[in-house]
Amino acid sequence: IIILVVAILCLSVGFSAFSTALNISSSANVSPDATTFSVVFSSSDSALETNPINPKKSPESIVATPATINNASEPTISDLSATFTEPGQSVTYNFYTRNTGEYDAFLKGITFQNVQSQSATKVCTANPGTTDSLVQAACNDIQISIKVGNESEATATTNNITGHSLLQGSSEPVTVKIEYLSNGARADGDFSVSFGDISLNYSSVD
Fold it and tell me: Which residues contact 165 (CB under 8 A, 6 or more apart)?
């Protein structure tokens, strides 16, 4: 019995004297597909639809054009336009942004851009026969504003929005209002008003 125990002990010691190490080296490259992040415009809050957006007019008798949604490449809503005849009139466009991507989206800011080839976000131009100085005075009383979700109404460049999320598959309302303020200055003839584009800046991180 003693010899057997010793033999087993020596055998176990002999085996424990041999060892080896296996090393596994690994790496991975992660390149997210930018197309999986997607926020677009919609005419519906429950599904992605791109029907024309008919504005709410005040008074109903003024002329205004339906807005058009185009989500190809860079999502755009265009053709927001109205013809005012006196102060106190307005048009309001109601539509939605919708998160169709694979990430939650965060609204980071709202940017009012300059009119193309101009150095101002609003340009008023007198038609022939209209006094330009009166037009510029009335111009100050015609404004455009935007409201996104529960954010405050914005009428100028808005930055550093935090904590504003748009979850995957969800929508939130957007309201754009063009208004000729009550008691606004009047011109002595026709004139046109051009506004620069408004950009909603969304990111995958807050």
Answer: 104, 105, 106, 107, 206
